[in-house]
Amino acid sequence: MIYNFEHDTDRKHQYSEKWDVAKNELPMWIADMDFPTAPCVQDAIIKRAKQGIFGYTYVPDAWKDAYIHWWKVRYGVYLKRDYMLFAEGVIPSISSALRSLMRPGEKVLVTTPVYHVFFDIIENNGITANESPLIYVDGKYSIDWEDLEERMADPATTVFLLCNPHNPTGTIWRREELLRIGELAQTYHVKVISDEIHCDLVDPGYSYTPFASVSRACARVSLSLVSPSKTFNLAGIHSSAVVVLNENLRNKIARGLKMEELSRPGVFAIDTTIAAYTKGADWVDELRSVLADNKQYVRERLKTELPKVKVIYSHGTYLMWLDCSAITNDADSLIKLIREKSGLVLTSGTEFRGHGSCFLRMNAATQRERLSDGVDRLVKALKDL
């Protein structure tokens, strides 16, 4: 390996949301890696910082060209500069898009369990979540097509908020599944907001399919949200792109971003994105191998040492979805118990709704020594249950 993903990192006392915990606690909850970003990105930040001037910044063609390069080389998708809008982040983009596309009282369709912040956005904007539970059989997830179509057909449902790949289950939606979603959305006049922030972090040998690339219907009804923030661990930089092929829809989204002052980049947002997407491919490929090995390590240890906790076998994201239904249906109480007994901090599946009250979410994007410590703590806390 060229890059060192085992170098210990100390993130305490740095205003880290993840690491602001007690001295003996180990946080493995929020989707934030413990790996320093790629050296090429660090170099870009240092170069800009040394200039010492941090004034207003505009979005150059080079920023768009970096996205074009990345999606062409890795996914065989040909974007155009006109398709892309700068935004400060995926979550602000979703919130702005909902305000641009919906009215209070309307419904946004989600497949649960799903990324818990979706519900905060939905409720904060005065609209309603229309939940279509995913089918869960033998440790695998699939869409309940009959239920999904019934909910799309509801005249009050005007947006489908898709997570591709899916957080927290790690499911990578297949092309035929995305095609069917696009066809249903077109039939029932529903817009699709596709959150694709985890797109690059899939296991070696696997690849996600960009929703808008599947068919004309998918391109016509959707906007896709992408960013280097998860891939390169740059959440604090606040840089993302909203990709919209439909010109009328793009104009509507652009007005919303501009009105809400979300389209002005911070001084590091441009340089980091360009460096990541033009020079960071080798680093990402090694990262994917490290993450896949980490997930396999957790699966093997829990299978042997904590067999009542079933790890959902998936190929997307570095987040592990742990089925604890054999020991609890109250994930909130379980994470509290684990934290009290071992200091390990996980996320309760209850936050993701659906049947999440029987699940925990663990972040495996950390050094192996730290990951081993986390599994030790989990086994110790739960071995008597």
Topology of helices and strands:
Layout: E1 26-27, H1 39-51, H2 61-75, E2 84-87, H3 90-101, E3 107-112, H4 117-124, E4 128-133, E5 135-137, E6 140-142, H5 145-152, E7 157-163, H6 175-187, E8 191-195, H7 216-221, E9 222-226, E10 240-243, H8 247-259, H9 269-279, H10 281-305, E11 310-311, E12 319-323, H11 331-342, E13 344-345, E14 347-348, E15 359-363, H12 368-382
Parallel strand pairs: 1-13, 3-4, 3-7, 7-8, 8-9
Antiparallel strand pairs: 2-10, 5-6, 9-10, 11-12, 12-15, 14-15
Helix pairs in contact: 1-9, 2-9, 3-4, 3-8, 10-12, 11-12
Walkthrough of the structure:
The protein has 385 residues and is α/β, with parallel strands linked by helices. It has 2 domains: 26-39 and 281-382, Aspartate Aminotransferase, domain 1 (Alpha-Beta Complex); 52-279, Type I PLP-dependent aspartate aminotransferase-like (Major domain) (Aspartate Aminotransferase, domain 2). 39% of the residues lie in helices and 16% in strands. The strands form 4 sheets. The protein has a 7-stranded mixed beta sheet with strand order 2-10-9-8-7-3-4, sandwiched between helices. The longest helix has 25 residues, at 281-305. The radius of gyration is 21 Å and the shape is globular. The model has no long low-confidence stretch (mean pLDDT 97).
